[in-house]
Amino acid sequence: MRIRKQEIGNRNIVGQKVEARRKEINMKQRDLLTQLQIKGIDINASGLSKIEGQLRSVNDYELKALSDVLGISVNELLGIEK
Fold first, then answer.
1. Domains identified in the chain and CATH numbers
2. Other Cβ atoms within 10 Å of 7 Cβ, number
């Protein structure tokens, strides 16, 4: 597992939750990328890494797809509910 070299950014509020949930369900980034691409989300490894590091904004359709793939509600990703 690689250690993040950059500090956490402030471009989104879901990135850390995406990363935590992905790790919680033992999913590798490449597996998440594959599932997102199946759902029509065109994103590469760098883009996902930037989302998780809060260095890239997340579009609404990406948020919905992340929610579906990770099995967590959009509200949970947004920190609205636990």
1. 15-77 (1.10.260.40)
2. 9
> What is the torsional sign of CA 39, 1, 53, 47?
negative
Token pair 């490449």: residue: 30
pLDDT of residue 4: 52
Q: For every one of its 82 residues, what pLDDT tens digit does the chain have, with 9 covering 90 and above?
A: 556 566 788 999 999 999 999 999 999 999 999 999 999 999 999 999 999 999 999 999 999 999 999 999 999 999 998 7
- Residues 17-35 as b/e (b if ≥16 CB within 10 A, e otherwise) read bbbebbeeeebeeeebbeb
d(CA 81, CA 40): 27
